[in-house]
Amino acid sequence: MIQDLSNIDNINSKEYWDDRFSSTNGKSWRANSGENQTKLFAYEIVKRLKMDTDFHGTILDFGCALGDAIPIYKERYPNAQFIGIDISTSAINICNQKFGNIATFLTEDVDSIPSVDVIVMSNVLEHLSDDKDFVKRLLRKCKDLYIAVPYEEKAPLHEEHVNSYNLHTFDYLNAEKEVYLCRGYTFSQILKSYIYIELKNIIRPFFKVPLYKGGLNRQILFHIKSQEASVLH
């Protein structure tokens, strides 16, 4: 089940994200390592996409932020075509500057995006009050939908999040799912992950400190095939 907290104020407006992506203050996307976070999630997602590496179709990254997942997907699927979509005009302008040579970037809403083979939505759905309807609309636009979200995030949620997800959230769509930990994509990141989690978990009980279970970096990836969207109608 989805833990629906959508009755709280949702700060995730276009204006909010335009400011986060374009500003240079301490709360900006770049100041808070947003680009690194996108890469961290993308390296784990791309290992779990169920297409052959010679895939020739189109992959759409919905909620692409500053586009940093696209080169990672491109490296795995060099023959694919890529589209990045984001609500923020500021983000898309930066995407075009950074990666316009390998992908098409657009500011579109969910009903205006082109129909494609695969849609990947990484750490976006938890921001949306109308998440179930949003999934329904995305499934009309693709053959395969991959959704990555924080796994069993507990209240109080991150200030930008309005939903929490578990293994059974999309059972009604016969979704495949996998829970995993985003440890990092460099040796130092991975080493620090093992030290902070497994090693420190050995001693945490002695100090009556709760075991670390992954926080926002503990993710669940849902894979939903579009023909199963008929159950929503």
From TrEMBL:
Q: What is the lineage of its organism?
A: Bacteria, Pseudomonadati, Bacteroidota, Chitinophagia, Chitinophagales
Q: Which GO terms describe its biological process?
A: methylation
Annotated GO molecular function terms are: methyltransferase activity
Q: Show the InterPro entries listed in the entry.
A: Methyltransf_12 (IPR013217), SAM-dependent_MTases_sf (IPR029063)
Keywords attached to this entry:
Methyltransferase, Transferase
Recorded hits in CDD domains, A to Z, give: AdoMet_MTases
Read off the PANTHER family from this record: TRANS-ACONITATE 2-METHYLTRANSFERASE-RELATED (PTHR43861)
Among its keywords, does the record have Methyltransferase?
A: yes
From which domain of life does this come? Answer: Bacteria
Methyltransferase type domain location is 60-143
Q: What is this protein called?
A: Methyltransferase family protein
Please give the organism: Chitinophaga ginsengisoli
